[in-house]
Amino acid sequence: MSDLLSIGASGLRAYQSALTTVSDNIANANTPGYARRSTALAEVAPSNGVLTSQRTTTGNGVLVTGVDRAADPLRAGAVRTAEADLGRTEASIDALDAIETSLTGGDISGALSSFFNSFRTIAADPTASAPRAAAIEAASRVATAFATTGRALDQASTNLDSTADGAVSSIDTIAASIARVNNGLARSADGSAARASLLDQRDQLLDELSGLTDIGITTDAIGRATVTIGGNAGPVLVSGTEAGNVTYVRGATGPASFSVFRAGVSTTITPTGGTLAGIAESAQRISDTRAAINTIASDFTTGINAIQAQGRDLDGAPGAALFAVGTTPTDISIALSSPRGIAAAAVGGGPRNNANLTALEALRSSGGFEAQTSNLIAENGATLEGRRTVADAQAAIRDGAVAARDQVSGVNLDTEALDLLRFQQAYQASSRVIQVARETFQSILDIA
Fold this sequence. Notes:
The protein is of the alpha+beta class and 448 residues long. The protein contains nine helices and eleven strands. It has helices spanning 2-27, 73-106, 108-124, 129-187, 193-212, 274-310, 357-367, 369-409, 413-447; strands at 37-43, 62-69, 215-219, 225-229, 236-239, 242-243, 245-250, 256-262, 265-269, 323-325, 332-334. The strands form four sheets. It has a four-stranded antiparallel beta sheet, covered by helices on one side. Helix 2 (73-106) packs antiparallel against helix 8, helix 4 packs antiparallel against helix 5 and helix 6 runs antiparallel to helix 7. The longest helix is centred in the middle third of the chain and has 59 residues, at 129-187. The chain is rod-shaped and about 140 Å long. It starts with a helix and ends with a helix. The relative contact order is 0.15. The model has no long low-confidence stretch (mean pLDDT 92).
């Protein structure tokens, strides 16, 4: 009779644990990073490990052996790869957006067209003051357009630096958190709910990290993660309870570089995925665009000032520089204050001569300044549109990978409801076993 009582009691304890696990699943059905859990049950073995004659016809009850966590490393890895790809593309899109805003905000091409057209008007009547004043105004607009675009591109670089600093800081925080989780896993009991919770935290941290950079992951028998950064062949970022720190530097000519410092050693990272890879790509793209605008600005101002110098102004004096350039080629201002200083005439041509303006038209044609700026905008726009298309596809791939992973690790409320009913019935049946044992035992006592 004592066997019957102990069997019933073991069933109560086991199915109470099972009900607790199902309840936990239901409560966390929408909790990000939560992996479904199940209570592992096993038959209680004979205490001496040998089936005796007494044990051949009766059981020994049920035992909770631990809490199993539903997870598929391959599907989780697919999610992280998709996150890294999408993170790189999204960072690239942000930079391309900034470049587009910079190029279109100043409207250099439109300002250049107005500038050259205004000098055509002077050619019709070189002595008229109104066209000359309009040309000075158009020149001021060109200077403002170049300066505005240059400042906007500089700001885009500054913003990119802020994004990089934020990403690096996030990586350091996540790496430190993974190290703490590793420490917790070493202290947790095998098959415990605490270990399952720590593994959930570990996987969620790894998912976040994969959006920032491509990583390599290996785990030991108890789930502690060793993480490399920049892919499987990259330097170690986290090992056991030790986490490294990532640094970011952008060179004067544009290239961005990342390094990880751990265990007293600094190692260069070459990210191919995640936000870091997008930042590296974007830094070079912004730098190249800045260099192209600098070249256009420099060729334009040098060419215009040279044409001014070879002509004569309305007073017959050699033409003075129309533009002054500051510390950068796009830092342009108007150096010529008087409209009379525009050198429309050739040497010895007189005030009504406009021969020097033909050189301006030749410069417009050979320099192709308007076409160059328009091409920069068009190329950037085409690249941006292409990146957006890729991002849409990568987002769909990521969503599909998440759905596939959640089929294994996600909580299905219908399944949990069935388990809840099944374990409830088993719990009630175990209670009934105890009740029957007590009633039978009492009957025996009453007979005695």
